Amino acid sequence: MNVEELDGFFAALITGPDMVMPSEYYREVFGGEMSDVCEFGSLDEANEILGLMMRHWNTIAGTLFKGEVYVPLLLQDENGVAHGNDWAHGFMRGTLMRHDGWLELVNDEKHGVPDPYDDAASRARHRPENASQADQPGAAGRCDRAHGCWAGAGISVFPGTSTGQCECTQE
């Protein structure tokens, strides 16, 4: 994992419904058992890398548990654009480590994530034949369900689009 993917991965593990121990998630981070895939120059180097990872974990956890704004660590491409794809991929990998717990949490009526646009007007606006109506000022962050888009909590995932943007949003 690069550092952006690691940030998203840690965010999912920290905010997830179930604890995941380092001995379990290190396999994901390093791509296998550390003893099989990692060649550290020395014990000091290994301790430094693992210490930096723990420090980053603690920074994310401390920010979230204090109720402060968590800003994902996003790398920029050669044009200075931060796409966030690696972060989102890392977050999704983190949720898969406790898939059943996340599924239960998302589907829980009391603690689940409500759809802020789940009303009759919004459903009508997001029908394929009405998609252009959603393409109005202030529509950013809304979802064109016909295109399989979802936007929420500052995370947008737009599968199947070459631009990375949903046709119904103005971003």
Any overview of this molecule?
By secondary structure, the chain is mainly α. The protein has two domains: about 5-105, no CATH class; about 115-155, no CATH class. Helix content is about 45%, strand content about 5%. The protein has eight helices and two strands. It has helices spanning about 5-15, 20-30, 35, 45-65, 85-95, 100-105, 120-125, 130-135; strands spanning about 150, 155. Strands 1-2 form a two-stranded antiparallel ribbon. Helix 1 crosses helix 4 (about 45-65) and helix 1 packs across helix 5. The longest helix has 23 residues, at about 45-65. The radius of gyration is 19 Å and the shape is globular. The two termini are about 30 Å apart. The relative contact order is 0.14. Residues about 130-170 have low confidence and may be disordered.
